[in-house]
Amino acid sequence: MSTTANAQTETTRTPKKKLEIDGSIAASTDGKAVYFNLGGPALNFGIKKFQFSINMLPSIGITALHTSVPSAYGTTNKTRLNATPVLGTGLQFYYKRAIFCIPFYYRFASNTWVGTVGVGYKIFKF
After folding, report:
1. Per-residue confidence of the chain (126 residues) as pLDDT tens digits?
2. pTM here?
């Protein structure tokens, strides 16, 4: 009669934490300006197909500047676009590759924070 006693058994463990690199592109607006961003550093939380993140968003803010220029025939109204680099912070909600974002941007000229709403797309994930 033979008896076998095993002190340790092999078990398969699934990692609870993982390091990933992903990229996204998004656009948001507050009704006065449009902001385009290409992702940035983030703290991500996920449950299956849904993901939530707190991001720093390096962006380009595009606003329309309206000016009145006096001329020989009267006043001429001109509109030009102004692009400004700006850093935002905010929340992003992911479902598969679709993104809904709520970023906030600081405007130095008026010393105010501006809240925006937008959508985006997750480009890649390593």
Report:
1. 556 656 555 666 665 666 666 788 999 999 889 999 987 888 888 887 788 889 899 999 998 887 877 777 777 778 888 898 999 999 999 888 899 999 999 888 788 899 999 999 988 765
2. 0.72
Give me the residue spans of the domains in the chain.
22-125
Scan for tokens 């006065």, then name that residue. 32
Q: Quick check: 52 and 92 in contact, CB under 8 A?
A: yes
Phi (first) and psi of residue 100, to 5 degrees: -115, 125
78-86 LR contacts (CB < 8 Å, sep 24+): 84/60, 85/58, 85/59, 85/60, 85/61, 86/35, 86/59, 86/60, 86/61
46 CB neighbour count, 10 Å cutoff: 12
Contacts of residue 53, Cβ cutoff 8 Å, sequence gap at least 6 = 42, 43, 44, 45, 91, 92, 94
Residue ranges in the chain assigned as alpha helix (H): none
